[in-house]
Design brief:
disordered C terminus, binds coenzyme A, 183 residues, alpha+beta, Aminopeptidase, seven-stranded mixed beta sheet
């Protein structure tokens, strides 16, 4: 493989469409090797992401390079009544710690607000401290466990909840100005 060309700026967020599924699956397999979502799971969720009856919101983060576009992150949210669930959130390892996870989560919480959800729930592997810190920064609180939720491996899930996503303001990251999240 040739060296990747330089990106022309920070990744842009846009709605995920069906033609993004294949590149998203590649990242999915890399980031969740034990319990990656299948192609069908993404198709099924995207089928509920458009139109007046939509209950899903999926996004991709796209980096533009001189040799084309590359998906470097994605996230999805499902709404059911006044409860929303973070279905997935992932960032390519080369972009960790740049605020991209926070930008994706901000958009999911905007979507939860647009769906008029009063609460947002998620499950997170008990050993995924990095993700938990991200969620805590946005006001999520641990409310319980699901024993053996992740199979294979029998890993427990931490269940986290955010009440009133419309008021969530992430704790600022020291030494940075996250102005682009607040527009
Ligand atoms: C969890 C995950 C989505 C976080 O994505 P990310 O892009 O690294 O998230 P952010 O950059 O917004 O935040 C991560 C850290 O970077 C810091 N950060 C955020 N913005 C920053 C910026 N502009 N400059 C420097 N650091 C920044 C944050 O404070 C945070 O640090 P902390 O953990 O010490 O609080 C990513 O690690 C990932 O995809 N992991 C694998 C898949 C996964 O586990 N998904 C979650 C399943 S529950």
């Amino acid at each position: 493989m040739t060296e990747a060309a330089d990106p022309t700026g920070p990744p842009a967020l846009r709605e995920m469409r069906w033609w993004d599924i294949e590149p998203v699956l590649e990242l999915e397999k890399e980031l969740f090797p034990e319990d990656a979502w299948s192609r069908g799971m993404f198709w099924s969720d995207l089928a509920h992401a458009r139109g007046p009856e939509a209950t899903r919101r999926y996004l991709v983060a796209v980096e533009t390079r001189s040799d084309g576009e590359r998906i470097v992150g994605y996230a999805g949210l499902a709404a059911a009544g006044d409860l929303a669930d973070v279905q997935t959130i992932a960032v390519a390892p080369g972009h960790w710690g740049t605020g991209l996870g926070g930008r994706l989560l901000t958009e999911l919480l905007r979507a939860a607000t647009a769906f008029e959800c009063a609460e947002v729930m998620l499950e997170c592997r008990i050993d995924n401290v990095r993700a938990q810190k991200l969620y805590e920064r946005f006001g999520f609180e641990a409310i319980g466990f699901r024993r053996g939720y992740y199979q294979p491996g029998n890993v427990d899930a931490l269940v986290m909840r955010l009440t009133d996503p419309s008021t969530s303001v992430p704790t600022p990251v020291q030494g940075t100005q996250e102005t682009e999240n607040n527009g």
